[in-house]
C-alpha cells in the first residue's frame, strides 16, 4: 500500500509561454519577479519557466545575475543530436541554458503532426542531454516513453478554455499513470489559475501544474506558486 503524505511531495509549477513574448516583455516579467523578492522553499516547490528558444539565453543571464529562484525549460527539443538539421535546437544546446524540455504538448501533436515515435526520440535526446522532460499526455491512454519521470496530464478541452478538468478526474488519471508507467511526478494542466491551483495540488496523486495563459502575467504566476 502506498501511503502518500500530501505536504511531503515536491510540487512543480511550470509556466508554458507558448509562442508569446519579445525580449523586453520577458525581461519585464522577470523584473516583476525580482522586485517582489519572491522566495521559494526549494525542498517543496520547483518553479520553471519555458519561454520560446529566442528568450532562453537572456533570461538565463537575468536569472543567474539576480539569483532568482526560477529554473528554465524549453518547449521542444530536436529528435536529433547536432548535425545538418536546419531549424532544430538540440539537447546539448538546450542544456547550456535550461534544465527541462516540454515534449508532446497537444499543440505540437496537432499543429505539427508529432507522432508517438517522434516524441519517443525527443525523450531519448532529452535523457542523453541531462534534461528532464515534461511529457504531456492528453488522457491516460497516451503512450509514455521509457525514461520519462515527469508527466503532465492536459486534456485538450481544458487548454485555454477556462474550463479545467475536475481535480477528482485529474487525480484519477494521475493515479493510473503512476501505477501503469511508474512515473514519480504527474502534473495537471489546462486552465489553471491562482484561484484553482490548490484544488489540484492538494489531490494525493497530483504533483504540480503546467500553466499556459495565467503564466504570462508574472503576478498571476507568483500567485499560482504561492497558492499551490
Ligand atoms: P492554459 O494552457 O493554462 O492556457 O489552459 C495550458 C497548456 O497548454 O500547457
Short structural description:
With 228 residues, the protein is an alpha/beta fold. It has 8 helices and 8 strands. Residues 16, 154, 159-160, 189-192, 210-214 line the site of 2-phosphoglycolic acid.
Question: What do you see in this structure?
Answer:
The chain is α/β, with parallel strands linked by helices. It has a single domain, classed as Alpha-Beta Barrel (TIM Barrel). It has helices at residues 23-35, 53-66, 91-95, 106-111, 116-129, 167-181, 197-201, 218-227, and strands at residues 11-16, 45-50, 71-74, 100-103, 132-137, 150-153, 185-189, 208-211. It has an 8-stranded parallel beta barrel, surrounded by 4 helices. Strand 3, helix 3 and strand 4 form a beta-alpha-beta unit. Helix 1 runs parallel beside helix 2. The two termini are 26 Å apart. 2-phosphoglycolic acid (PGA) binds next to strand 8.
